[in-house]
Amino acid sequence: MSTAVILLAAGQGSRMNSDLPKVLHRLAGAPLIAHALASARAVEPERIVVVTGTGADQVDPALRALDPDLRIVHQTEQRGTGHAVAQAVPELAGFEGDVIILYGDTPFIQPETLRAMLKARRDGAAVVVLGFDSPAPGGYGRLITDGAGRLLAIVEAQDATPAQRAITLCNCGVIATEAALLSDLLAEVGTSNAKNEYYLTDIVAIANARGLHAKAIACDPSETMGVNSRVDLAAAEAAFQARARRAALDNGATLTDPDSVWFALDTYIGRDVLIGPNVVFGPGVTVESGAEIIGFCHFEDCHISRGARVGPFARLRPGAELAEDVHIGNFVEVKNAIIDEGAKINHLAYVGDAHVGAKTNIGAGAIVCNYDGVFKHRTEIGARAFIGSNVALVAPLAIGDEALIAAGSVVTEDVPAGALAVGRASQTNKPGLATKLMARLRARKTEKVPG
42-52: per-residue pLDDT in tens? Predict the structure, then answer.
C-alpha cells in the first residue's frame, strides 16, 4: 500500500526570538526540516507535501535545495494544524494510500515508529495517533483511551478538565490515516475551542462518532522532542550528539573522548576508525574504515579513505578528497583538492583547487596560490614530486611527475617532469657587515639611554 507524508512547517516560531524561520535553525549541521524529511523518507513515501507559511520566502528555497521534487503549499493564515493540513490535501488528489502527518520542528521520530503506525493503520485502525508518556505533561494534549489502546479523544490542555489533565499519555501530533478519509474528516473540523482554531486532533472524535476505530501508539519520549526555543534546540543538539556518538562506537569506531566529538546529520564513519578528541564533522563527511583522525580537526563536505591519517589541527574544506594512506598533518588546510594515494602534506600548508599525485611530498609552509582576487585557478602536481618548504605555487600551474621545487621558491611557470625548479631571489653575502651594523645599533642605544 502506498504512503504519502504531509510535513507541517508553517509555524512562526516566535519563541526562537530570531529572524530565521524556526525550521531552518540548524541541528547537527542541517536545518531542522532536513531531520524531519529524513524521517519521512524512511517510509519510502510516494509523495511528500510540505506546508510552509511564516518565512516561506526563506523556507521554500531551502526545501528546494534539499529536494527539488518536494510538493510545497502555503498556509497564508495561521488558523491551526487542521487548517494547515487542509492546504496539503489537494496535492493528494488521485493518491490512494495512507498519509502520515509530521512536523518540521520534531526531528527525532524514528523509522520503526512510523512503520508501527502504518501497520496499525493497515491492521484496521482508521486513525492512528502517536503518543508518549510524560510524568509532567504540562501543555501537551492528552490522549483519552479505553485502556486497551483504543483512542476515544484527544483533548488540548487548555480545554481539558482537571481529571483529563492528570492523564500522562500525551499527544505528539503525528497522525496516520487513509488519504481519502483524511479529507473527509477535515471537512467536519470546526473552531469551537479555546483558540478558535481548526485542530487536527478533532478528527479522532469525528472518526469515533462515525463508529470508526482510532488507536494510540506510544513511543519513547525522546522521539517526540520538539524544538520551540533556543533552549530546546540546545537540548536537541545534545540528544542528537549522544545518539550519534553511541552509534559510531557501536559500529566499530574508536572515540578516545566521545563527548568532545561532534557529528552532522549525514556523517558516515567506517569500522576501525580512530577519532581523537575535539574533532568536528560538518555536513557531507565520509571516513572510510581504518582511517585515523588525530585531535582538534574540522571537516566539511570531504572524503577520507582507508588508511589515511589526518591531524592534529587539520582542516578539510568542501571538495577535499583524500585517497588511501594519505597523511595530512598539523595546521594543514585542504580545499577542493584531490590528494592521491600515499601523498604527504605534513605541516603548515594550504592546498586549494589542486590535484596532488601519488606519493608526492609537500613541505612545511608551502601554499597553493589559487585565487587572484576574482577567479580561482587550478594546480596539477604529478606523482612522486617534492615541493620544498615555504614554496608558493601560483596557479594556474602544472608540475610534472618527480619534479622538485626548491625551498623558498615562488613558482609561476609549469615545471616539466623530473625537473628542478628554483624560483627565489639570489642571495648576496656581505662579509663583516653584520658585526659592524650591530655595533652601531648598540652604540646608538647607549647614547639614547641616560647614564
Answer: 999 999 999 99
